[in-house]
Design a protein that fits this description.
The chain is α/β, with parallel strands linked by helices. The protein has 7 helices and 7 strands.
Length: 178
């Protein structure tokens, strides 16, 4: 077994990425404080062919050196937009037939492995603040809440780790991994 060099990985250019078929998933980061977390989500969104990222509330936006440090250029490949207030955005995306999913622990959450992903649907995955999680007003506007099963003492994951797990699951179940 030989470790591959960068030039052996078959990376596509930013222009090719923009033309590549994406999975029917939009990510929303709402009130995410850490620019490093934002950058990590960009990088993961690039890896798993996410359509777009919306940055809402206090979430930092490119250009930003902390986002750049963890995104490693994915802030240039992944389409993104800043929207101050998330509620009108959610209503707009719902009107375009997107299923709105908050990633949050609620009394009605569905465990991620049990959530049935319909490849004919369009999804929006909402990730909230590092301390407070997804705001209740956003949960109220959601069609579903999904949580990642956890067995340790914390029952909490870093938002960028959580986003990576959920994006991978949606990528995996859409069939683009074949």
């Amino acid at each position: 077994m030989k470790k591959l060099k960068l030039e052996e990985l078959g990376r596509i250019s930013v222009e090719e990425f923009k033309e590549t078929k994406k999975i029917p998933v939009i990510v929303i980061l709402d009130d995410v404080r850490s620019a490093y977390n934002v950058g990590s989500v960009f990088r993961t969104a690039d890896a798993f062919l996410i359509q777009k990222i919306y940055l809402c509330g206090i979430t930092g936006t490119p250009p930003n050196k902390e986002i750049r440090k963890t995104a490693l250029g994915a802030d240039e490949s992944v389409e993104w937009e800043y929207v101050k207030d998330i509620s009108p955005l959610i209503r707009e995306l719902k009107s375009e037939n997107h299923k709105i999913i908050s990633i949050e622990q609620t009394d009605g959450s569905v465990s991620l492995p049990e959530f049935k992903i319909d490849t004919d649907e369009k999804y929006v995955l909402i990730f909230g603040n590092e301390v407070e999680g997804v705001n209740q007003k956003v949960v109220d506007l959601s069609d579903y809440c999904i949580e990642i099963p956890q067995e340790g003492t914390k029952h909490s994951l870093n938002v960028s780790v959580c986003a990576g797990i959920v994006m991978w699951e949606f990528f995996r179940k859409t069939g683009l991994t074949d």
